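Journal club prep — side note

Before the paper discussion, L.F. wants everyone to see what a predicted structure for a comparable chain looks like in token form. Sequence:
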Amino acid sequence: MPDTIASAVLAVDAPASDIIVLGKIAAASGLHGEMRVYPFADDPTGWATLPHWWVGREGDAPDLWRQTRLIQCKVRNELLIARLACAADRTAAEAMRGLLVGVPRAALPPTDAGEYYWADLVGLAVINTRDQSLGRILGLIDTPANTVLRVGDGDSAERLLPFVAAVVLEVGLEAGRVRVEWEMDW
């Protein structure tokens, strides 16, 4: 039964590496290199304790992501205002618009029981209570109400399943599957 999704993870098209995507740089903010970062997490304030972030483009190989020192990070209106050592001024911050920020998996704290990083869920098989396969988790969508699983098999239309206890009955990371209360024709 799902409790929470741990902070830090983009599910859709995350790079094939040990980099866990935390968010996306939305725009410059201020004159001294600050930038607005849209978080892909439920607890972005925890990122401020990380000494370094990595910056890269979606689909980049792991060796193309570059490490940079985190100077400052605070939350304002559901966005992060971050200052990175690689952006000395507004012009540099503007040039970084659209880049992703992340950290290596090893830099993240372990999850508690009932907590999952999105990247751990992507690719898991989804089986209903009748042992019918609904496909695999293709990604997750964060909505104001709850997180939504994008499930598909590549041959048929995607299903969108709410990541709530009434639907997601069991997450078996070791078994590579998620058991859900969801019918094939829903």
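L.F.'s comment for the group: Helices lie at 90-95, 118-121. Keep this in mind when we get to the figures.
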